[in-house]
Specification:
single chain, about 35% helix, 16 strands, eight-stranded parallel barrel, eight-stranded parallel beta sheet, alpha/beta
Length: about 500
Amino acid sequence: MKLLDCTLRDGGYYTLWDFPSQVVSAYIEAMNKLPIDYLEVGYRNNPSKEYLGEFGYSPVSTLRRLRKDCCKKIVVMLNEKSTRLEDLDNLLKPIQGLVDMVRIAIDPKNFDRALVLAKEVKKQGFEVGFNTMYMSKWNEYEGFLDKLRQLDQVVDLFCMVDSFGGVTPMDVRSLFEVVKQRTTVPIGFHGHNNMQLGLINTLTAIECGADYVDATILGMGRGAGNLNMELLLTYLNKGGFPVDFNVLGEVITAFHTLYENYRWGTNLPYMISGANSLPQKEVMEWVSNRTYSFNSIVRALDNKKNNQKDNARYPLFKAHSAERVLIVGGGNSCLVHQQAVKQFAALIPSMPLIFVTSRYAALYNDLSNPKYYCLVGNEAKRLSRNVSEKDFNGVCLLAPYPRRMGTEVPPYAERLTYELDNITFTHSYLDSCTTLALQAAIAMEAKEVNIIGYDGYKGEVLSEKEMELTNENKTLFEAFKDAQGVELRSLTPSLYKSLKVESIYQFL
């Protein structure tokens, strides 16, 4: 049995395939001393419009450096869906002699096309591996398993990939037997850890006679991640497998900063997606999104599982006209200037208050102005925490149907909840609370849009989340102004250049 470590390739889904040079050096140095046979270091990709880092392309210079420093067999991966026969000369000829194996990531429905690619890759002198995805759904691909008879003499490895991280040891045994009956090609297993079954599934594959198994340092890999190589080696060491734990400890330490930064690993949304064979790409995006709570992600997954667009529908919002509105954000200025805001709002009792977030909504409960609460992501729960059923005297607004993350509304607000018909001023950030608030102002035909609580972030260095939110708000403010020709006026201090800042105190 051979061990294949694919940390740099699979872990790249978190780092966009950029790794600090000192981490790569520590990784190669450790791999040279550990009982691992193959290192899958990245992809060979055609040029892409999205950013892919060094190991998303694995340039010749990078592979040449790795080849010089590495004494193990080197593997790169091709994506079958984005690679055609005419691409192979450009992708593979320059790396002949630098790479030992080319693995091809394959959707079972494209098996025939992948077989044609594999024959050409083989002609170029590489070992060829098939990483065949969606293992938990193989039985749904009509005729796929019988096509495995065509693998002999074409590929050197057929790897069973638990893409969704949801197969069980029973599934592994069953499918292993089916594969073994149809091909003499060496069989591998690549498990994901959504259900924390990566180790037991891999050990089951080994018991069944697997020739290759995959793992990664600290389990670094797409979504919930992979089987931890250090866990597999520790288990195998019990049976006499030689492992230098000092070396293993050093490479774990080298990757620890990346782990602290990205925090890959399983959680409830990944578990649900694994159990139901739901796409990992979306779940990974949702889990890393600051707006989405676990509850909203679970709802979205439940809707997908049940093949429904959304879990609830509400009447369309029919707005009353309002000459002026006041949009209330979540910045600290709402708290600092609360008395002035209350005085200002009290002077214009017909002016609606549109709460982008309910963070400070309780401060303004005693105002008689019409109140609208935008509900996206965590906001339903936040509203329940900050505004009791007794104090609630407003209307809840939802994004247009269907909502990407499903729908959650406080029980006491069910009868006073409406969904917007559509978003007219932007195609970006359609599930942002700020988008809902600005669209509500449009629906009310407001000629004056006042804003508080969009303070912006001070400092030369912003966190990733702060940068994302800054860019989101800037984009939405500019789109609103372009579409409506209405100036957005901030009555509290703001760092957003898209807002016209005027002191609330001059109106009191």
